[in-house]
Structure to design on (595 residues):
RNA sequence: GGCUCCUUAGCUCAACUGAAUAGAGCAUCUGACUACGGAUCAGAAGGUUGCAGGUUUGAAUCCUGCAGGAGUCACCA
């Protein structure tokens, strides 16, 4: 049995026997003993001193004795103020490595495919411009949270909802017709999404010019923005699209096709994917029946002008529009519809939306309305809200050209990785193809780790000029550690002298540190999954890699003369390599055999 | 202006549900290569956790107020 559960139970029994305190296992919290003190797990006894009517030191002393007496795995304990530090016998740790050392899936739970799916929506791009750094954070988060939940045993379905219709698409289409001269991805050599994005910018340029001219001729700004010929034409194009105009639809399909080809390439490079892709052009009319249902139920109401609203003033919010007076729906209406669609499509238990924090309000409202409409799963809707990626000179603004393009960024990272690699010059035996693959892995390892190690909810700063480090708390550091370990394990396998070891061995401090971190892997993954935080996984992997390096630096492994100790250390190596691989895989980061 | 979130070392970030002396990396300084892989390791220096109160045996963490920053308050998506 796991030592933590054993300890918890022993403590619970001690509390009952000594003081008659009935503490359930959940209220007993053990924490890792701080490095500077002797021991492995610490119990804070302050919560019990009142009922025990004794000084903290005395209480700790008594609990310690009682536990040690009843739990042989506890080899000793010490008391400092109100902190009771338990020491766990080496034999326990040795047994743990012996049992789990060869388990390549250690720490990962088998996903239960028979349980109700958890649907994770992420990415959700617009098809009028290419992906940028903000999308990268979204995609990486979506993918790794999916991996994380799966590692914790959930049946995860990843979905993407592509925003493929609307006025913004028409802008690109119109500009392409006007100024494009029939340019295609083939003729221009541009990636499809970049080409379409170029015409979106083009539209904005000419449109601003028109607005400026109108204002110079005395038209108010508001009015000028509405009346500029380009805008009027884009609006009419949207109308024709909605009416199913063949010409408009054909162009729409053609240009969206270019964009999808471009997106697929970027998704592939990022290593993300989906189980199902929804298109807004097919779902944007959903939700109206729900509104009718809501009207019947009396949770929604109609105003005199015919528009339909939900009154959320009772929840401390405003009234929210759901149908315009002309009967057309808004964003919220669609999202209500797609939530239901998704729930029905998968029989989903939970819906998770990976969407930026600028939509916090929207999802708060979405959840509330779903609840009012009587859906029991409304409280299982979770908005995984993430902060913006900021640049040293401020926010990214597409219109001002201060965006970091996803493809460009990946290109640069790969170049940097190639340069670094060449500098270290250890990969001469690799073919060119293998080297390219390695550079790709390292580049994405650096990028992904850099982004995922930050708490999702927080805004983060990205400095493209300084690019991303390959030293310190980085993806490549962990990748490097893995590659080194695998190298040792390979050599050990060649020598074939690796045998068993006895539980009588004594571990040194650094070995113990590594083993303890390994031991915590399952709990760490479970804890990270509970709060949807890949960052916690990243920090775990780093801590493990660091502890291993520290151990590795001054402890002989293959040169160790004692065969049993050698065997133990090799097993430990294999286990660390495995744990690094599994945790990095959750982050979507590949880990090389050599680098 | 209302509501929500944020503020930790020079910089970028940690600290799970309140617990011991708030931890890493980068940058700076000092040491360690006849290498089981130095993309490493050992160490130094760097902090009144934005400010002021409060609750608690104990607060970066919870409460109140203030300052600074971001987001949002569309018959846009």
């Amino acid at each position: 049995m796991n030592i933590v559960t054993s300890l918890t139970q022993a403590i619970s029994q001690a509390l009952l026997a000594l003081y008659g305190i009935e503490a359930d296992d959940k209220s007993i919290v053990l924490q890792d003993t701080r490095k500077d003190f002797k021991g492995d797990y610490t119990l804070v006894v302050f919560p019990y001193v009142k009922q025990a009517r004794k000084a903290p030191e005395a209480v700790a002393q008594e609990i310690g004795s009682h536990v040690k007496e009843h739990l042989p795995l506890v080899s000793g304990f010490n008391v400092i103020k109100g902190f009771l530090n338990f020491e766990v016998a080496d034999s326990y740790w040795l047994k743990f490595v012996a049992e789990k050392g060869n388990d390549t899936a250690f720490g990962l739970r088998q996903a239960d495919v028979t349980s109700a799916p958890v649907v994770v929506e992420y990415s959700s791009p617009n098809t009028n411009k290419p992906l940028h750094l903000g999308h990268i954070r979204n995609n990486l988060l979506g993918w790794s949270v999916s991996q994380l939940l799966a590692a914790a045993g959930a049946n995860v379905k990843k979905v993407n909802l592509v925003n493929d219709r609307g006025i913004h698409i028409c802008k690109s289409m119109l500009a392409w017709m006007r100024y494009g001269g029939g340019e295609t991805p083939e003729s221009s050599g541009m990636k499809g999404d970049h080409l379409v994005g170029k015409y979106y910018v083009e539209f904005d340029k000419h449109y601003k010019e028109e607005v400026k001219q109108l204002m110079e001729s005395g038209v108010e700004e508001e009015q000028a923005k509405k009346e500029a010929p380009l805008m009027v034409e884009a609006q009419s194009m949207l109308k024709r699209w909605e009416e199913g105009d063949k010409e408009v639809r054909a162009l729409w399909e053609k240009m969206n096709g270019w964009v999808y080809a471009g997106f697929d390439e970027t998704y592939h490079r990022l290593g993300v994917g989906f189980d199902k892709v929804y298109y807004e052009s097919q779902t944007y009319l959903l939700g109206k029946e729900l509104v009718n249902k809501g009207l019947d139920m009396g949770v929604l109401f109609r105003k005199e002008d015919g528009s339909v609203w939900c009154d959320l003033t009772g929840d401390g919010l405003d009234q929210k529009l759901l149908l315009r007076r002309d009967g057309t729906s808004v964003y919220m209406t669609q999202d209500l519809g797609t939530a239901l669609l998704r729930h029905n499509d998968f029989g989903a238990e939970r819906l998770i939306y990976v969407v930026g924090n600028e939509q916090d309000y929207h999802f708060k409202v979405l959840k509330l309305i779903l609840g009012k409409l009587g859906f029991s799963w409304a409280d299982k809707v979770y908005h995984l809200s993430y902060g913006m990626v900021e640049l040293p000179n401020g926010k990214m603004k597409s219109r001002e050209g201060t965006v970091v393009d996803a493809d460009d960024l990946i290109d640069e990272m790969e170049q940097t990785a190639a340069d670094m690699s060449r500098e270290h010059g250890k990969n001469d035996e690799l073919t060119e193809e293998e080297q390219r693959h390695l550079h790709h892995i390292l580049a994405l390892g650096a990028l992904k780790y850099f982004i995922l190690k930050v708490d999702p909810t927080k805004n983060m700063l990205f400095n493209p000029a300084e690019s991303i480090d390959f030293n310190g708390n980085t993806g490549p550091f962990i990748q490097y550690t893995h590659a080194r370990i695998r190298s040792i394990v390979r050599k050990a396998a060649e020598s074939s002298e690796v045998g068993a070891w006895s539980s009588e061995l004594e571990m040194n401090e650094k070995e113990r540190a590594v083993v303890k971190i390994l031991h915590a892997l399952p709990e760490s993954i479970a804890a990270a999954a509970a709060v949807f935080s890949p960052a916690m996984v990243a920090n775990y992997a780093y801590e493990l890699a660091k502890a291993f390096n520290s151990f590795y630096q001054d402890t002989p492994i293959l040169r160790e003369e004692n065969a049993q100790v050698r065997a133990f250390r090799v097993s430990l190596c294999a286990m660390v390599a495995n744990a690094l691989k599994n945790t990095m895989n959750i982050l979507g980061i590949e880990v090389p055999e050599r680098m």
Q: What stands out?
A: Chain A has 22 helices and 14 strands. The longest helix of chain A spans residues 192-216.
